[in-house]
Design a protein that fits this description.
Number of domains: 3
CATH class of the largest domain: Alpha Beta
CATH topology of the largest domain: Tetrahydropterin Synthase, Chain A
Number of strands: 12
Distance between the termini: 85 Å
Helix content: 40-55%
Mean pLDDT: 75
Strand content: 15-25%
CATH architecture of the largest domain: 2-Layer Sandwich
Length: 369
């Protein structure tokens, strides 16, 4: 055997009439979930020539649905500590500014007489409000406004999101009295652990049966910057994600399996776990941390509730009858076997059938009662 023939045999390729080479190992793969690649129609010829006689119909691989894009926000938006000072600094600055403004007015002799009398100051005519006096009063007043205007009270479980002319400047999670730049726009955000119980929302199961579902979601804000600046309304966004993910999860299983032992939506642990994972993945890009999303009630819609209830009762009755009949048949078989094995009775076919019939009626009647 020549090297050319050996190489040709080692390649093991099937040549079709569309001049497409298909490796044999690709035809017999055991991959459970192959990823289809968009391909042109592949036609495997039968070797009958260029006329195409005997050629099977072309087959096109079904395209896979594109993956859902992951939501994202501006990568520059991310929570970071904001610059604040202790509240004592603001109080001190405001007091100094107020004292300076009063002193400047007293220097100019512009303080009201009642204030000088209350303060016990001697009468002073002053030098008048000149440019220097006006500058001193303005500077002291600005210092007082800047000092007192920046005072803020932080609360446990609340945070401030600070922006300056539309630009994010940091977040503050401190509690107590603090001083924040008065030029910053402050947005209060609740960062406590919260829960939301939905109203009955419409959905369908795997069989297309209309349902009404109530979901309890436990969540909190993990990134205040993304939750405030990355989305218009983070609570409304979370509600929309709950409704969308709930529809996706509930459409994978039937609400009830009447005549077979199969997974259903009554398995609250499995359904809640899947819903929690999907909701957490959708809410994470906007700074929301989801701890639990559990359906608290799954019931049929009013328009189909009566029919499905009758079907459920019929299925339960059929299961009960089947279990009773199986038990009766086993009891009859055991009784007949014992009687004949121990030689207590000798029965021909007719007598055996009659005995089985009588025992079945007796046992079934007793079980039914």
């Amino acid at each position: 055997m020549t090297e050319t023939e050996s190489g040709a045999r080692g390649a093991r390729l099937i040549h079709n009439e569309a001049t497409t080479e298909i490796p044999v190992h690709l035809l017999f793969r055991d991959d459970p979930d192959p990823v289809p690649v968009p391909m042109s129609p592949v036609v495997v010829g039968t070797g009958t020539g260029s006329t195409g006689a005997g050629r099977p119909a072309a087959r096109r691989m079904p395209p896979r649905a594109p993956a859902r894009p992951v939501p994202s926000v501006d990568p520059e938006i991310g929570e970071r500590p904001g610059r604040v000072l202790p509240g004592a600094v603001g109080v001190f600055g405001g007091a100094v500014g107020a004292a300076g403004a009063a002193a400047s007015l007293g220097w100019a002799g512009a303080l009201p007489r009642i204030m000088t009398e209350i303060a016990g100051l001697p009468g002073y005519e002053g030098v008048g409000l000149g440019p220097v006096q006006w500058a001193a009063v303005a500077g002291s007043g600005a210092l007082a406004l800047f000092g007192f205007g920046g005072l803020a009270r932080g609360r446990t479980g609340r945070a401030w999101v600070l922006t300056l002319f539309g630009r994010y400047r940091g977040s503050v999670r401190r509690a107590g009295l603090m001083w924040v730049n008065p030029l910053f726009l402050r947005r209060r955000v609740d960062v406590r652990l919260r829960h939301w119980r939905s109203e009955p929302m419409p959905a369908v199961d795997a069989n297309g049966v209309a349902l009404r579902v109530v979901v309890l979601v436990v969540w909190r804000i993990k990134d205040t910057a993304k939750a405030t600046l990355g989305v218009e309304d983070h609570e409304e966004y979370l509600r929309a994600c709950v409704e969308a993910d709930m529809a996706r999860v509930l459409s994978q299983l039937p609400a009830d399996a009447f005549h077979e032992d199969a997974p259903t939506l009554r398995n609250a642990e499995a359904v809640g776990g899947l819903l929690t994972r999907r909701l957490a993945a959708d809410a994470e890009p906007v700074g929301i941390e989801v701890f639990s999303a559990q359906p608290t009630r799954i019931e049929y819609a009013p328009e189909v509730a009566a029919a499905m209830q009758r079907r459920r009762i019929a299925a339960l009755d059929a299961q009960h009858r089947d279990s009773v009949l199986t038990s009766v048949v086993d009891s009859v078989e055991d009784t007949v076997t014992r009687l004949t094995t121990r030689g207590l009775v000798e029965l021909d076919d007719y007598e055996r059938k009659a005995l089985v019939k009588d025992l079945t009626v007796a046992f079934y009647t007793g079980r039914g009662e």
